[in-house]
Design goal:
This is ABC transporter substrate-binding protein. About 40% of the residues lie in helices and about 10% in strands. The protein contains 18 helices and 11 strands. It has 2 domains: about 210 residues, Periplasmic binding protein-like II (D-Maltodextrin-Binding Protein, domain 2, 3-Layer(aba) Sandwich), CATH 3.40.190; about 210 residues, Periplasmic binding protein-like II (D-Maltodextrin-Binding Protein, domain 2). The protein is α/β, with parallel strands linked by helices. The strands form 3 sheets. Strands 2-1-3-11-6 form a 5-stranded mixed sheet. It has a 4-stranded mixed sheet with strand order 8-9-7-10, sandwiched between helices. Strands 4-5 form a two-stranded antiparallel sheet. The longest helix is centred in the last third of the chain and has 16 residues.
Length: about 450
């Protein structure tokens, strides 16, 4: 594998203690959302901030990430370790559920432990982690951001500074059984909800359609229901939090979006198990042949298309843009970014490792092995890649038009509030109107600046 040219002085340094105590930082960030007001400038070069000048130290590091279901991550690490025997990377795998990953990373940061070096962050965690001084600012001139999709680069920035480098992107797509649609005489995937329901009714009349559920998007009480809410409300023309940072759930568009999720469950369009299925559970459900339409991430494509007997739908599905009320819907902008813990040792090695994982060679290999969405724009137009993965043009459009989840320093509290009220609406514990009213009230103080 290609060796990354080293950055920084080849010497070892101890763990860096950066910024004020977490509690003080959170309060300050919530009141002012300004790092300068919290005792340091955005660059982190003064008053205890971990600036880019602190990217020193070489030696072993750790890579902290959610569980790798592809089995390919270790091969990438083996390639790095073979070329860097004195700077080996050891992977620390966290649980599947994003909420659990975030909590463990926060626990490590609040204890100022140097056990975690490179963090594989969900794109919505950047503001929270940066505002709390848990991340080391990164030098923009050492990373070729111009080759990356602009939407992905934005997710790694906070207050104009770079804190994380996009490694994989993500946007929801509509997986559909092209074989069943063809048998029902349907030549194209649906662009609207009405078309999707009509297609379901036609397929269910077929012998092959018996026992096949219509549609699934995650509505279990996890981060996934926040994503489903962002997409449903965004597809209706609304938002959860507006450009000014204030909640916008008291609108007809927000009501229409939430009603889509509620009615899909209530009317039996979704599986009975929908409120308990997580991302992996949904993947297995689709691969078992029990779903006609599914909102899912790109990673599923390679797994569902395996011809080793693990998928009953291999070769029988395709992907399209998510449908909406009146036309194509809006996907959530997902993905993961790589950041360096403010308290880590060997940060020069960490930066080189980030450059290695986000370089074209690694992203190309990762796409081929896992079907995870790359962040380099050129791979979406590469003839070899589009031949292997016909969905890439669909995915590129989805990422370009995608909506982010609410950007908030108190993101953990924000998403917990969304999860609670949306789940209560979907399960019938609250009416749509009551859920939106309650959520509007909760998000006001949590997003106040």
């Amino acid at each position: 594998m290609r060796r990354i040219p080293p950055i920084g002085a080849p010497r070892n340094t101890g763990p860096l203690v950066t910024g004020p105590l977490v509690t003080g930082t959170v309060v300050c960030a919530a009141l002012a959302l300004s790092l300068s007001a919290c005792g340091g400038d955005d660059g982190g070069g003064s008053k205890g901030g971990a600036g880019t000048a602190s990217l020193t130290g070489r030696g072993p590091i750790t890579f902290v990430t959610g569980k790798d279901r592809s089995g390919y991550l270790q091969k990438q690490l083996d390639g790095w370790n073979a070329d860097h025997p004195q700077e080996k990377v050891r992977v620390i795998e966290l649980p599947d559920e994003p909420n659990d990953q975030r909590q463990q990373m926060i626990q490590n940061a609040t204890t100022r432990s140097d056990a975690y070096t490179v963090l594989n962050l969900d794109v919505v965690w950047t503001a929270e982690f940066a505002a709390n001084r848990w991340l080391t600012p990164l030098p923009k001139d050492k990373i070729d951001l111009a080759k990356m999709l602009p939407a992905t680069v934005t997710t790694g920035q906070y207050r104009g500074n770079l804190y994380a480098v996009p490694s994989t992107s993500d946007a929801g797509m509509l997986y559909y059984r092209k074989d069943l649609l063809a048998k029902a005489g349907i030549s194209a995937p649906p662009k609207t909800y009405a078309e999707m329901w009509a297609d379901c009714d036609k397929v269910k009349k077929l012998p092959q359609g018996k026992g096949v559920d219509c549609f699934f998007t995650e509505v279990n009480k996890t981060e996934s229901v926040t994503i489903s809410a962002v997409e449903a409300i965004g597809s209706a023309g609304g938002s959860i939090v507006g450009p000014d940072g204030k909640p916008t759930l008291n609108t007809p568009q927000a009501k229409q979006g939430l009603e889509f999720l509620v009615n899909a469950k209530k009317d039996g369009r979704m599986p009975k198990e929908a409120v308990t299925l997580d991302t992996e559970g949904g993947r297995r459900y689709f691969q078992s042949g029990k779903l006609l339409f599914q909102r899912q991430w790109p990673y599923q494509y390679a797994l569902a298309d395996k011809d080793d007997g693990s998928s009953k739908v291999a070769g029988e599905f395709a992907v399209a843009q998510l449908p909406g009320p009146n036309g194509p819907g809006v996907a959530n902008l997902g993905g993961h970014n790589l950041a360096i813990s403010a308290f880590a040792k060997n940060k020069a090695t960490a930066l080189d490792f980030i450059r290695y994982l986000t370089g074209e060679q690694s992203q190309r290999a990762n796409l081929l092995a896992t079907s995870q969405a790359p962040t380099l724009a050129s791979l979406y137009d590469d003839p070899e890649m589009t031949k292997r993965f016909p969905y890439l043009p669909v995915l590129k459009q989805a990422i370009t038009n995608a909506r982010p989840r609410p950007v908030a320093v108190k993101y953990g509290d924000v998403t917990a509030a969304i999860q609670g009220d949306v789940y209560d609406a979907v399960t019938g514990k609250k009416t749509v109107d009551q859920a939106l009213t309650d959520l509007q009230g909760k998000l006001g103080p949590l997003t106040a600046q």
